[in-house]
Amino acid sequence: MAVMPLFLLVAGSAAVAGLARRTPVPAPLLLVTAGLAASFIPGIPDYTLDPHIVLPLVLPPLLHTAALESSYLDLRANLRPVALLSVGYVLFATLAVGCVAYLVLPGLPLTAALVLGAVVAPPDAVAATAIARRLGLPHRITTILQGESLFNDATAITAYKVLLAAALGVGATWSDGIKEFALASLGGIGVGVVLMVPLHWLRIRLRESALLENTLSLLIPFFAYAAAEQLHASGVLAVVVVGLYLGHRSWQVDFETRLQEDAVWKVVSFVLESAVFALIGLQLRVVLRGLGDFSAAQTLWYAAVMFLVVVLTRFVWVFPATFLPRALSARVRAREPDTNWKAPVVVGWAGMRGVVSLAIAFSIPATVPGGGSFPARNLVLFLTFTTVIATLVIQGLTLPPLIRLLKLPGPDPQAETLAEAQAQNEASRAAEERLDELLRDERNALPGPLADRLRTIMERRRNSVWERLGAVNEVTGESADETYRRLAREMIDTERRVFVQLRDAGRVDDEMLRTLLRRLDLEEATAYREEAS
What we know:
- The chain is an all-alpha fold.
- The chain has helices at 3-20, 27-38, 51-69, 72-77, 79-104, 110-120, 126-135, 139-167, 174-205, 210-230, 235-248, 255-282, 284-288, 296-328, 330-335, 342-349, 355-362, 377-406, 413-439, 448-467, 480-504, 510-532.
- It contains 22 helices and no strands.
């Protein structure tokens, strides 16, 4: 892709994503709509999704970011529903959609129809989890949707490779395909397990240089993906396993590295997600170009059938997968919280498709060995595109009102604040005991005011959480801690202006100004992170 079209894509998608924050419409939906509208503007370049770019260069950092922000403990606690969705549902959807496509689409061989099934099988939960967090869905549902999105791409891509080989006539028996699927899955997990410990060890050894550590952090997902793919294993699973481990162990990394890494990956994720959803909408002209053999009525009928099958298939899987294990196993009933019909309705309707489906579809070769064309390739591309757009727009726009209508109980802010306060209280008491122990050593002698300052900092940190549970200022509506942070920021702003005035007057140079401003920035960042939490 040329530099100017790439610049226009990134700048335009970032602007639309920024605009989405001022509207009730989730950013992914607004970006897709903007992409669709832009595809009709004369002079807009053709933005064809290149699977050789999306799969190895765009997918790994997005998966790595999601894995870093996921909870290994929560995923382990919900392993059964996550596995049923990310593996069981994807394989079930592949077969169900493939069989319906074989029956509905004239002249499409069963193997090619199953390829279409694998292409549209994996939901992309970016939009769903964004909506879930905004509307305060129960934590368990959000965890299940996020866990599904981490692992289902691996299932779909592996199934696609096996089925494509069969469609091209270069595959072996079904048992060989199952063996290849198992080896790719286990191999991807194995590569991740082998890499995660040495990569974390290397990060710990680089703690003296936050820049080197963050450079390594940027390279890790690409390295893990490439290493697994080189061994014909699942690069997706390798990236996810490494990301989950590094996120679980992030507390062992230097604080400066964590601050930088958090900012760096937020920028990377924002840019890539914005560009990816805009690219989905921009594919309209590309997929319409090859549909000359089909009438508009035919293609719309096929698109409607595929959308309905994809939606119904998810509900057909989700409800039995939710209630049958509980009915058949006392152990499941004892280990997992009780549920009702509302949770599977939300999970079933949250099956929106995304860029991975389009990237896989565009990787279907135009010809088969022997020189013939791949059966109905252009129609497969079109149906993938319409399924992605329909699920994003129809399900994405209706999911928020559905959640509100069902009135699912969200997280209890009071209970969360109370748990946070109790945890902070225990940590502060331990820190105070450690401080007293250290101060008894002559090597750690401190003047009284400085020792008191350390105790004051700990006391304020402990009290700040409790204050959020207490009364608020009748005039401003703020708690005492919120007022404290606001006044602290006002003081920091005043100091910052004075430092700049001193620089402009020639009393300090720019290097000293940067040092002074960095100290204030770190203090303000600490106050901001406390307020955001």
